[in-house]
Amino acid sequence: xxxxxxxxxxxxxxxxxxxxxxxxxxxxxxxxxxxxxxxxxxxxxxxxxxxxxxxxxxxxxxxxxxxxxxxxxxxxxxxxxxxxxxxxxxxxxxxxx
Length: 97
Hints:
Blueprint: H1 2-21, E1 32-38, E2 44-50, E3 63-65, H2 72-82
Antiparallel strand pairs: 1-2, 2-3
């Protein structure tokens, strides 16, 4: 029982560290929702889910694992798939990158 309790406490601590590793001031978080995904018996992973609507008005919902504080994969997705750059500008030719 003590071992299970220790694993639970470690899991809770890990979750707090992961939640705190996402910088809500980063410009990309207005385009992504953060979601914890339970992957193993004691580790959750954090994913960014794209909230941008595509040309037909449907939400993109592409999911990307957030590793530490790195958001380069999210930024690449915004630029490549939606033509959205950090300054908020939109490129019409996003697929040409």
